[in-house]
Amino acid sequence: MNENIFLIGFMGAGKSTVARALRDEYGMRLIEMDEQIEKQEGRTISQIFAEDGEDCFRALETALLKGLECTNNTVVSCGGGVPMRKENVAAMRRSGKIIYLSAAPETIYDRVKNAHNRPLLEGNMNVEYIEALMKKRLPKYLEAADITVETDGKSALQICKEIRS
Fold first, then answer.
1. Residues in the chain with pLDDT < 50?
2. Do 13 and 99 touch, CB atoms closer than 8 A?
3. Comparing C-alpha atoms, which of 15, 4, 2, 13 is closest to residue 91?
4. Dist. CA 90–CA 85, nearest whole Å
């Protein structure tokens, strides 16, 4: 596959797990957007949010995506807020397919409840808050996606096969 795959969806939907599986199964290059930004900035996402604010972090995401437009055969695990910006969606479309990984709010909560590296959930770690934020983002996820894949109750390999079919 020469085309890039951009995995979008809410935090905890399985983007990182599926990205690793696509890398391993199909020999794709893998980019974890959050990890890449942390590496280039020399600080955590939480620190970027605290020190410079969400707008700064979102600008870093956009710059990273634009820098990927010349790559191919790469799977990109995007941050949950990436599709909220039209310019991000446009950059992804120019170089690949956008796959929306969906999961139930309860599944998301179960996957992220012990994490402390999710600034938007700190102090709001409950199903109700997750569900409300997911509903707010859902139209942008659906608008951006070329394909939607449900992740509840599926293995990473099953999801990979759905994406590749």
1. none
2. no
3. 4
4. 9
Q: How far is CA 104 from CA 5, 7, 64, 99, 138, in A?
A: 22, 17, 29, 17, 12
Would you state the structure tokens that stand for residue 18, as one six-digit string? 């599926």
HEC profile of the chain: CCCEEEEECCCCCCHHHHHHHHHHHHCCEEEEHHHHHHHHHCCCHHHHHHHHCHHHHHHHHHHHHHHCCCCCCEEEECCCCHHHCHHHHHHHHHHEEEEEEECCHHHHHHHHCCCCCCCCCCCCCCHHHHHHHHHHHHHHHHHHCCEEEECCCCCHHHHHHHHHC
User: What is the amino acid identity at position 8?
Assistant: I
pLDDT in tens, 102-136: 999 999 888 777 665 555 555 665 788 889 988 99
Q: Cα-Cα-Cα-Cα dihedral of 101, 66, 46, 49, to 10°?
A: -120
11 near 32, Cβ under 8 Å? Answer: no
Amino acid at 126: N
